[in-house]
Every structure is written in structure tokens, then in C-alpha cells.
Specification:
Helix 4 (140-152) packs across helix 6 (219-227). The protein is 38% helix and 17% strand. It has helices at residues 2-43, 79-90, 111-124, 140-152, 177-184, 219-227, 239-250, 290-299, and strands spanning 46-48, 66-73, 97-105, 127-129, 165-169, 174-175, 192-195, 197-198, 209-210, 214-218, 255-258, 263-265, 283-285. By secondary structure, it is α/β, with parallel strands linked by helices. The longest helix has 42 residues, at 2-43. The strands form three sheets. Strands 1-11-7-10-5-2-3-4 form an eight-stranded mixed beta sheet, with helices on both faces.
Length: 314
């Protein structure tokens, strides 16, 4: 009887071991499928050039001195959103780049704005006030880009531009600055147009244009916008689409980088422009309320560098 019991126990151990090994194999297969799917999404992020649209552009420079200006069009009265975005971008450490975030609006029209905005400038020095009447799709984007060369011109160092790249970004877009810099490192610093191609199913930035959630151009294109008559003749319309039409008519931006799907709309509500939050994200768009912002920030664990202290318990 004892031998029979031992035999039965041995059989149970063999069966349990077999089930355990089978489970491990199944989990490994699932992980491999998920990894392959993630890799397929990564492959959707493509670097385009006119001759070979699926080829990789050569590394332009190994210098870790990328200078980026992020201009966020907003309204003078949106004090709370500006303070919130200062938290978002001021707490992101970035190696290998200098990034300035500026808030952009047109001429002030009220006395309280003149006082409050002046205080913001004195404290933060991160506001650009354009000489225009406040608008969204009637030339504000043109005024922003075309004003920068004169605003930032430095005669003492004319060989180096004040910034290598300039971004126009929405105030409901969350840029992950280290990931942005990582994608820019191997790219050219001239004649570059970077962003999320729209309409959503498109992958070809030479046929379509970059979404207004946040698109980037190199400094030489900023100077071209200032000097060319093409943008001046076409100011009215959806600003991101109009911007793409300027470049097409002027035959500019021979280097184009489609950052899809590292840039995308927030997962809810689901559309062809959305997917789930994932680690390789450069930018998330359509963060229209506090809940969406908090869920996004929580996913990326933005407070991981908070140091313990006796002064607070979080």
C-alpha cells in the first residue's frame, strides 16, 4: 500500500510539473505575440525622404546640444492652464538638449491682463505676445513663426541659429521631452518637418500634413516662412493643413519624419487616431480634462523622482 501511495504521489508530481511547463510555454508565446505587435507599431514610425520614403536618414550630428523651442498658442486669460503646463514641463529632466517652452498669444486687450501677464513674465519669462488680434485659424500660426527670426536674432552669433527646431504644440498635448529628444538625435537639422500625419489612416507626410497637436520644423524653415510670399498669400483655414500647404507649394521640407504611432490621441473615445498609452510615447493629444491628464501622468509615473521627506507624506 505504501508503494502504491508513493507511485500515486509520483504520478501527481509528474502531471503537475507537465502542467507548469505547459503554462510557461503558453505565457512565453503570448509575450512573444505581444512583443511582435509592439514591434509592428514601432515600424509604423517612419523616416521619409523624397527618394526612398522607407529608408533611414543618416545621422546628422552626434553633438548633444539640440536646442528646441516649443511654442504653445493659448489665450491670455488661461492662467490656470499655463501654470499646470509649467508643472508638466518644468519637472521633466532632459539630457542632451536645451528646451524652452513658451506660451503664445496675441495683443492684450484688458487692463487686468496687462497687470497679471506682466507679473507672469517677471517671474517665468516664458510668454510671447504677438502683434495680432487673437484668432485660431486666421494667421496666428503664421505670425508666430514669422516673428521668431526678428525676436531671437543675435548679430553676435549669426552662424548658429537660436534654436535648431521650433514646435507649435497644442495646450491639450502632453510632450514627453526625453522621448522627443531621443527621436530627434539622428535626424537632420535642416529642411525637416516632423509630426503626426493626418488624416489618421495616412502614413505619407509628402501627400498629407502634420497634425496641429504638435508639429516641428527646423530653423531654416522658420526663416523661409518669414521671407517667403507663399504663406502671406494663404493665411485663413485650418492652421495645420494650411502650414502643410505652404511647404508643399514652396517645395520645402525634403526631410519628413512621421512620428506615428509615438504620437497619438488619448485612447478614449476610441477613433482611428487613438491607441492605448505605451512606453515609447512622444506625445499624447486631446487631454481635454483633468481626469485624462491625471491618468496619463500616472501611467508614465511622472512622480517617480519625488524624494522622501519628513515634510510630506504622499
Amino acid at each position: 500500500m505504501k508503494n502504491a501511495a508513493k507511485t500515486g504521489n509520483g504520478s501527481k508530481i509528474v502531471i503537475i510539473s507537465f502542467i507548469f511547463i505547459a503554462t510557461l510555454i503558453t505565457l512565453a508565446s503570448v509575450n512573444e505575440i505581444q512583443f511582435n505587435n509592439l514591434s509592428n507599431i514601432r515600424r509604423c514610425t517612419a523616416i521619409y525622404s523624397p527618394s526612398t520614403k522607407n529608408s533611414t536618414l543618416p545621422i546628422k550630428s552626434s553633438e548633444n546640444d539640440i536646442r528646441i523651442l516649443i511654442g504653445i498658442p493659448t489665450l491670455a486669460d488661461n492662467h490656470q492652464r499655463r501654470h499646470f503646463l509649467r508643472l508638466i514641463y518644468g519637472t521633466q529632466p532632459v539630457a542632451g538638449a536645451k528646451i524652452d517652452v513658451k506660451f503664445v498669444f496675441c495683443n492684450l486687450t484688458k487692463e487686468d491682463q496687462r497687470i497679471l501677464i506682466a507679473l507672469e513674465i517677471m517671474l517665468y519669462n516664458d510668454i510671447i505676445i504677438l502683434n495680432c488680434k487673437e484668432n485660431m485659424d486666421k494667421g496666428k500660426t503664421y505670425t508666430y513663426f514669422s516673428s521668431l527670426p526678428d525676436m531671437l536674432k543675435d548679430d553676435s552669433n549669426s552662424t548658429n541659429p537660436p534654436y535648431h527646431y521650433v514646435i507649435k504644440g497644442d495646450d491639450d498635448t502632453y510632450f514627453r521631452l526625453p522621448k522627443l529628444v531621443e527621436t530627434l538625435m539622428p535626424l537632420p537639422r535642416e529642411d525637416l518637418y516632423y509630426g503626426y500625419v493626418v488624416p489618421c489612416p495616412s502614413m505619407d507626410p509628402f501627400v498629407h500634413y502634420m497634425s496641429g497637436m504638435g508639429y516641428l520644423v527646423s530653423w531654416d524653415i522658420v526663416e523661409w516662412i518669414k521671407d517667403s510670399d507663399i504663406p502671406k498669400r494663404h493665411l485663413v483655414g485650418p492652421e495645420d493643413k494650411v502650414f502643410g500647404e505652404w511647404l508643399r507649394e514652396g517645395r520645402r521640407a525634403k526631410n519628413r519624419y512621421n512620428a506615428k504611432w509615438s504620437m497619438y490621441d488619448y485612447p478614449e473615445p476610441a477613433t482611428r487616431c487613438t491607441h492605448e498609452l505605451w512606453p515609447d510615447t512622444v506625445a499624447v493629444h486631446r487631454l481635454k480634462n483633468q481626469e485624462k491628464w491625471i491618468r496619463t501622468l500616472e501611467y508614465f509615473n511622472v512622480t517617480k523622482n519625488l524624494k522622501p521627506s519628513k515634510m510630506y507624506h504622499i
